[in-house]
Write a structure and sequence with these properties.
Blueprint: H1 3-13, H2 16-28, H3 35-42, H4 46-58, E1 62-67, E2 70-75, H5 77-88
Antiparallel strand pairs: 1-2
Helix pairs in contact: 1-4, 2-4
Protein name: ArsR family transcriptional regulator
InterPro entries: ArsR-like_HTH, HTH_ArsR_DNA-bd_dom, Metal_resp_trans_reg, WH-like_DNA-bd_sf, WH_DNA-bd_sf
GO molecular function, one term: DNA binding
């Protein structure tokens, strides 16, 4: 992942509602969710949800597929893992790091 992609992804996730939407899609798994289901689960207005989904899609964190009359939104796990990899790429200066610890013991 390049720096500009990481910035876009982090920027998209830096809003409480978008973070909740993304987490709900991660939990939903590969089958994804429709906007109606997401709006009901998160108790958010559909027009606001549409805006947040667009921002997440623009950052590459969410994909959308038309299935009949429904839109299905899914988390993009490759992008999510790419962001995590980018953030931890040089963790502990290449030494083995115990990520279960509250801090790295490098």
């Amino acid at each position: 992942m390049k720096e500009d992609q990481a910035i876009a992804a982090l920027g998209a996730l830096a809003h409480p509602q978008r973070l909740r939407v993304f987490r709900a899609l991660v939990v939903a798994g590969p089958q994804g969710l429709t906007p109606s289901v997401l709006a009901g689960q998160l108790e958010v207005a559909r027009n606001a949800l549409s805006f947040h989904l667009k921002e997440l899609a623009h950052a590459g964190l969410v994909s959308v597929e038309q299935q009949g009359r429904n839109l299905i939104y899914r988390a993009e796990y490759g992008e999510m893992n790419g962001l995590i990899g980018y953030l931890t790429e040089h963790c502990c200066q290449g030494a083995v790091c115990d990520v279960s610890a509250s801090r790295c013991e490098c």
